[in-house]
Write a structure and sequence with these properties.
6 helices, two-stranded antiparallel sheet, 19% strand, alpha+beta, Bit1, 4-stranded mixed β-sheet, 150 residues
């Protein structure tokens, strides 16, 4: 099965389960700008994979429209690099996982990013951020010990 087909299968499964929680966990050692970038990359991909989580457009009293936003919120938490790797492994069986490997900020274009990740095996990858979408109780158990990124 192709990566794209696997991703769609996961999304279809998540739609059927009606995920209730979405969180992003970022490497606590990142500078604020790098952490914001990592969280944004993960959030963008989560939004693409879970478009059903986007709420109805917002309308002002004069009719001005604004795009819909996620109504369930997205806490951004912090963890060590080791905790991110462990969290990713623990989460794969319970929810949809979007991970952002360190190579994403170490390369200057997507082809170089693809090549850098392709040169490594799964256990040797390290992550800057992980996004999770799934049932509230599962996500809560997985991230309950992490503090807000500040």
């Amino acid at each position: 099965m192709s990566l794209q087909a696997e991703a769609q299968s996961l999304v279809d499964t998540e739609v059927a389960r009606k995920p209730e929680r979405c969180v992003i966990v970022v490497d606590a050692a990142l500078a604020p700008g790098k952490a914001s970038n990592a969280a944004a990359v993960v959030a963008f991909t989560l939004g693409q994979r879970h478009s059903h989580l986007v709420g109805a457009p917002l309308r002002e009293s004069d009719g001005t429209a604004h795009p819909g936003l996620i109504p369930i919120g997205i806490p951004v938490l912090k963890a060590t690099a080791q905790q991110l790797s462990e969290l990713r492994q623990k989460s794969l069986a319970h929810c949809d996982v979007v991970d952002f490997p360190v190579q994403g900020q170490a390369t200057t274009d997507y082809d170089a990013f693809l090549d850098a990740v392709n040169a490594l095996s799964g256990p040797s990858l390290q992550y800057l951020a992980i996004g999770l979408v799934g049932p509230r109780n599962r996500i809560g158990k997985l991230v309950g010990g992490f503090a807000l990124f500040a």
